[in-house]
Specification:
The complex is a heterodimer of chains A (467) and B (206). Chain A has 467 residues and is an alpha/beta fold. Chain A contains 15 helices and 19 strands. Chain A has two domains: 260 residues, 2-Layer Sandwich (Aconitase, domain 3); 178 residues, 2-Layer Sandwich (Aconitase, domain 3), CATH 3.30.499. Chain A is globular, with a radius of gyration of 21 Å. Chain B has two domains: 170 residues, Alpha-Beta Barrel (Aconitase, domain 4); 30 residues, no CATH class. The chains are: A alpha/beta (467), B alpha/beta (206). At the A-B interface, strand 2, helix 2, helix 3, helix 5 and strand 8 of A face helix 4, helix 7 and helix 8 of B.
């Protein structure tokens, strides 16, 4: 019977069918960070339980660490030091792989994992972090879990998982200039809502997806959780194999050919069927921007702030009205040209080398508008190092951006550093929730290129119209 | 884990779609490496007048009587979307919430509920709206009855609404099971799988 890539990976990891729609699934890798991993490790230890196969468990410091140059275990977030030190102690005692502060490999979990060859095609990877689906960009089946589930995966190497329905999202046609993977995923969420993917594992397919670089595919899969989906992936291809080859935890020379042969068979069979199909024509996608407090509150930068009165669903209309009030926006206002206070480039969505290059291309020879606070946080120590080798740091700093150490940083406000009260921020991150980036802070999500162009203009800008 | 079998309790309506876990517990309220002490920060941005402050916002439903005694939350679609933080569930449980009724839930949040003794009930939007109307007429008297053995929610007007839950989740809540201990019973099977897999995919084994 023909199978999808999702079913092939699922079947290969199914230890037992528990008979009620759930299966016992083997987890190849567990990744932890100091925010939620700390609780999982501590709680496991308190229960007197051991980590099974600690060599396949990885941990980084990303959520709470400061990103200022010269940082230490001390954090601006009150109490942050305890998270860092508890995680370090527990990681060392459990014998898992730790990418600690001061290690150039340290960075955001979902940036480090591909970079180090930890995420592999056809592998199951879990992390107590909702953006774990990012790793689907490499053809891994990866999903976010809670801390208690993380304990289960650590102790048993398995999880009890409800079998997802399958969905294929096909992006046809070609992306226009200035349009990126970020704009593709925002378009999907905007058209089909923040709950449109609930219960599904998604295969992203189509000509436009094939043409995306691996880093762009990671961005595409990163926001599947914002669509409500359990997981999302792109079937591995020659680009995937090239990306992985030679990375530290990837299969070595002696196993490489065997691994590639295995991975090549993972793609969906030609006549495999999905429970749901969505098709999006890339020719219709402009650079996207969010205007509200859910990633589904988004539209093209060349459009107007929508009118809640045009929404027929009562609950959606109420959410729109509330969002416009929070964002201090009037229906009918052109999005392009709305004045901003700050710009942020970073996060597991858009902090990789190609993201920084795209922004630097726009920033080169230009200056951030007066009064705009602009910050760039590379996704890992290695991304930072590679960017600096190309002189990208100098372009950012000459334009007026802060250039930071790696981490999640101001993607969310943890009690330390934040954007100010009611400040309007254009951000390459993934969540525009109320108070996400600071108390009453107003977030507009966009691609790194749109963020860079907006920082220069001092207002939400269409990268295609930049002088 | 506290067992869940039956519950008759006051239900608080908080009808908004896409209530995310950042709303349920803001990141800055997760102050310690602990599952305890989180209820104070629950819904902090809505519950208090100032971000970071503790002066109660009298308009917020859970600050009003009799909803302060609520053990059931009636809410909108996609409740608990966003961040995986289990702190959201720990905060709700510590505050006293035992059951959440919504048209849909964020996937990770749903799993976190089941593992912490909170019953997530999925009912159609019209049904939830109907329950809200009845509760709001007289919230102290119009309690809801939730029966996990028969998977039913009883409304004040005597009607009953059945819901679906995966048998494994139902058992976990009814028995207050330790999921790790349950899986450990299959350890021979897991180790046998691992042995076969190691030969088939040796590159996975570092």
């Amino acid at each position: 019977m023909p199978r999808t890539v999702i079913e092939k990976i699922w079947d290969e990891h199914q230890i037992a069918d528990l008979g009620d729609g759930t299966c016992l699934i083997y987890t190849d890798r567990v990744f932890l960070h100091e925010r939620t991993g700390s609780v999982a490790l501590k709680s496991l230890e308190a229960a007197g339980r051991q980590v099974r196969n600690p060599e396949q468990v990885f941990c980084t410091m990303d959520h709470i660490v400061d990103t200022f140059p010269g940082r230490t275990d001390e954090t601006r977030m009150p109490g942050g030091t305890a998270f860092i030190q508890t995680t370090r102690d527990a990681a060392l005692s459990a014998g898992i792989n730790l990418f600690d502060l001061g290690d150039t490999r340290q960075g955001i979990a979902h940036v480090v994992s591909p970079e180090q060859g930890i995420a592999l095609p056809g592998a199951t990877i879990v992390c107590p972090d909702s953006h774990t689906g990012t790793l689907g960009g490499l053809g891994a089946l990866a999903w976010g879990i809670g801390s208690t589930e993380a304990e289960h995966a650590l102790a048993t190497k398995t999880l009890v998982v409800k079998k997802p329905k399958t969905m294929r999202v096909t992006f046809t046609g070609q992306l226009s200039a200035g349009v990126t993977a970020k704009d593709m995923i925002l378009t999907l969420i905007g058209r089909h809502s923040a709950s449109g993917g609930i219960g599904y594992a998604i295969e992203f397919a189509g000509e436009a997806v094939c043409k995306l670089s691996i880093e762009a595919r990671l961005t595409l899969c990163n926001m599947t959780v914002e669509f409500g989906a359990w997981s999302g992936l792109v079937a591995p291809d020659h680009k995937t194999f090239e990306y992985i080859n030679g990375r530290p935890y990837a299969p070595g020379e002696s196993l490489w050919e065997q691994a590639v042969e295995h991975w090549q068979a993972l793609g969906s069979d030609p006549d495999a069927t999905f429970d749901k199909e969505i098709e999006i024509n890339c020719a219709d996608i402009a650079p996207q921007i969010t205007w509200g407090t859910s990633p589904m509150h988004e539209t093209g930068i060349d459009r107007l702030v929508p009118d809640p009165n045009d929404e027929t669903d009562e609950n959606k209309r109420a959410a729109m009205e509330r969002a416009l009030e929070y964002m201090a926006l009037e229906a009918g206002t052109p999005l392009e040209g709305i004045p901003i206070d700050a710009a942020f480039i970073g996060s597991c969505t858009n902090s990789r080398l190609s993201d920084l290059r795209a922004a630097a291309e726009i920033l080169e020879g230009r200056k951030v508008a007066e009064g705009i606070r602009a910050i760039c946080v590379p996704g890992s120590g290695l991304v930072k190092q590679a960017a600096e080798a190309e002189g990208i740091d100098k372009i950012f700093m000459a334009a007026g951006f802060d250039w930071r150490e790696s981490g999640c940083s101001m993607c969310f406000f943890a009690g330390g550093e934040s954007f100010g009260h009611e400040e309007r921020v254009v951000s390459s991150t993934n969540r525009n929730f109320e108070n996400r980036q600071g108390p009453r802070t107003r977030t507009h999500l966009a691609s790194p290129a749109t963020v860079a162009a907006s920082a220069i203009e001092g207002r939400l800008a269409d990268v295609r119209n930049l002088d | 884990m506290e067992k869940f079998t039956e519950l008759e309790a006051i239900a608080a309506p908080l009808i908004r779609i896409n209530i995310d876990t950042d709303v349920i517990i803001p990141s800055r309220e997760m102050k310690r490496v602990s599952k305890d002490g989180l209820s104070d920060g629950m819904f902090a941005n809505w519950r208090y007048t100032e971000p970071g402050g503790r002066e109660e916002n009298p308009d917020f439903v859970l600050n009003r009587e009799p909803y302060r005694q609520a053990k059931i939350l009636l809410t909108g679609d996609n409740f608990g979307c966003g961040s995986s933080r289990e702190h959201a569930v720990w905060a709700l449980a510590e505050w006293g919430i035992r059951c959440i009724i919504a048209p849909g839930f964020g996937n990770i949040f749903y799993g976190n509920c089941v593992r912490n003794g909170i019953l997530p009930v999925i009912l159609p939007e019209e049904t939830v709206s109907g329950l809200v109307r009845q509760v709001e007429e007289d919230p102290a008297r119009n309690m809801l009855q939730v029966d996990l053995i028969h998977c039913m929610v009883g409304a004040p007007d005597g009607t009953t609404n059945s819901f679906e839950i995966a048998p494994a989740d139902q058992e976990m809540l009814l028995e207050g099971l330790d999921a790790i201990a349950v899986t450990r019973r299959r350890d021979d099977e897991i180790l046998a799988f691992q042995g076969r897999d190691r030969l088939k995919r040796p590159w996975i084994y570092l």
